[in-house]
Amino acid sequence: MGLPMEKYENDIKLKLTNITKIFPGVVALDDVSLELKTGEVHALCGENGAGKSTLMNVLSGNHQPDEGAVILRGDKVDVPNQLVAQKLGIGIVYQERSLVNDLSVAENIYAGNQPTNRWGIINFKKLFAQAKVLLAKLGMADIDPKTKLEYLSPGKQQMVEIAKALSQNPEILILDEPTASISETDAKVLFQIIHSLTQEGVAVIYISHRMSEIFQIADRVSILKDGKYQGTRIMSEISVDDIIRLMVGRDLVKQDYQSHVGEEVILKAENFNGPDFLNISFELKKGEVLGLAGLVGAGRTELARAIFGVDKKYEGELTLNQNPVKINHPMDAMKLGIGYLPEHRKEQGLFLEMTVEENIVATNLDVAVENKLLQFSKISDVANSYIQKLGIKTPDSKQKVVNLSGGNQQKIVLAKWLLLNPKVLIVDEPTHGVDVGAKAEIYAILKELTEKGTSIIMISSELPELLSLSDRILVLCNGNLTAELPKEDFSEEKIMHFASGTKNMFNKNSEKIGQPVSAN
């Protein structure tokens, strides 16, 4: 991006000095200091649990520091809550969305700041007009401000979240994993928006685990490790390996591809039809990692949820170990040895207010039963074995999951399914919002599972991840299967052609998604 205007070169807009924040049993931030210049994009990197989100929550008023100060435009300020932060010109876009599904796009964008008439009643005509202008300015003219949020894709909802932050005209904008759930096209729009904002002097703090993005968009990068500041570097003077070394304290060992595919077909899906996918058939072999590629809205997640019994399908036959099976509910799938790590861990994969150990044993309480009674000591023992095995960072097994970082939460979801010892494990965006160190650990766990004979269906929007882990890749476009690629035919370019519909290996006619092929 480059510091866009010479006059901003040495203009310090924000200083965080000696920030310390302690939670029960955890020093989340330990004497952290940071400077932010006007008109720059400042990347913030660190493993999950390094303190990035805590630091941004201090800046945005959601947490109060135990020590240290926030200095804005040369003056020390108190930020007791998010409303004060907004008044100070600080806007934040969280990784987890803070929108309301039952409200319109416009109502979400201007929540708490709607235009009203002299009687204090919302002026909806003006509200929709304002939102339309803002969305057009941000390159989102295709989003109707009157549409209920629930009808938008997750990617479009994330763009609305960004519009909500920008509606406050912030001088400092914090973006926490902003591209985690948006398409490549929307990401390009976002980068253009960021460029325009920095040209106007807005300072952007950009948190992301995607190194390619950081090098594309950031001017400087600061690194945190275990709540401690590791330093700030100019992007042109640091490499990816340097950043990773500062983040994790070691060089990552590259996982070489090794196939564990057997001859036995474990799972076979035939003619699966649903509201978002048509005529999908495939086989999954023992020890295989079968990748599902496609753009946002291709039907990958919907297909996985139908196989697991979360969503209804219109038609389709499923065979497990050569035996026809009926799965009408996730419990049916679990009894058959099928696990599902969902895309949205907080909403679908965890009991946030329950403890680590309660979450880990949730899929298989039998491991803690003796003489028909639940043994709480056994629950702790089982949980502690997985905490150690997966390197879950938590004070103890009785810590509430809501208090842990995203990467550690993801490992807990994975531990739940490892305890089930599944024959088939479906993983949907398994490293979503996870740092590079945790990614390497999760990759190793998945490969270890295949070595032991577990078959994996993996959905990922990160093509390098799919290419490195998969034995075979199926590509979906608009709910149709457009390609089946063996390892020797893998390439990002080829997958994008099939995913965008410019090529179709099966030469099928394009069929309209949204209508049932036939109803049961």
Summarize the structure.
With 520 residues, this protein is of the alpha/beta class. It has helices at residues 52-59, 82-87, 105-109, 124-137, 154-166, 184-199, 211-217, 240-248, 300-308, 330-335, 345-349, 356-360, 376-390, 406-420, 436-451, 463-469, 492-500; strands at 12-23, 26-37, 41-45, 67-72, 75-77, 90-93, 172-176, 203-207, 220-225, 228-234, 265-274, 277-285, 289-293, 315-320, 323-325, 338-341, 369-370, 373-374, 424-428, 455-459, 472-477, 480-486.
Topology diagram in text:
Elements: E1 12-23, E2 26-37, E3 41-45, H1 52-59, E4 67-72, E5 75-77, H2 82-87, E6 90-93, H3 105-109, H4 124-137, H5 154-166, E7 172-176, H6 184-199, E8 203-207, H7 211-217, E9 220-225, E10 228-234, H8 240-248, E11 265-274, E12 277-285, E13 289-293, H9 300-308, E14 315-320, E15 323-325, H10 330-335, E16 338-341, H11 345-349, H12 356-360, E17 369-370, E18 373-374, H13 376-390, H14 406-420, E19 424-428, H15 436-451, E20 455-459, H16 463-469, E21 472-477, E22 480-486, H17 492-500
Parallel strand pairs: 3-8, 3-9, 6-7, 7-8, 13-20, 13-21, 16-19, 19-20
Antiparallel strand pairs: 1-2, 1-4, 4-5, 9-10, 11-12, 11-14, 14-15, 17-18, 21-22
